[in-house]
Amino acid sequence: MKAFETKKEKIHWVRIKDGRLCYWNGEKELIFDEMQGFITGVNFKDDEYQGRKYTEAMFTMYWESEKYFFSVNTATSYFRSFCNYLASADLTKSILLRPKITEKDGKKNYSIFVQQDGRWLKAFYNKDNPGFPQLVIFEVAGKKIYDNTEQIEFWKYKLLNQFKYKSVDNPIDDLPF
Fold this sequence. Notes:
By secondary structure, the chain is mainly β. 15% of the residues lie in helices and 47% in strands. The two termini are 31 Å apart. Residues 167-177 have low confidence and may be disordered.
């Protein structure tokens, strides 16, 4: 017996790499097309890489008593699309998420699609349901600059409020006895 035995919960860290989900198992990267689970919370972490500052959204997910942190940079289309589809989901049920890169007219589009109850969810905010902050576009030295700060702040506020009152940490262990 150890003097100070602790039972540390194993947490799996998942991120997006080249349009697919990437998980480091301690030896190598494992690549997946999709993942499934119950989202129970979100946290935001400010970080820096090679002198560039960014904010990471870390979604806590559970699947079959395993805990996952799915992290995504808030300044990406992945984050904004995921939040828009997630807004249409019932968070008391499991979701399946699938990142995707599509190309149209030489321009790449990055998205994370969400499936629930066997059907792909529609984006909550769209042409028929406006109310989402638009990109701020301005010109500097003849070049268009797109500022998505208002959109990111909108989604951070919505997510933090959405998970604020969620009390179940692990939906699999939520038994009445």
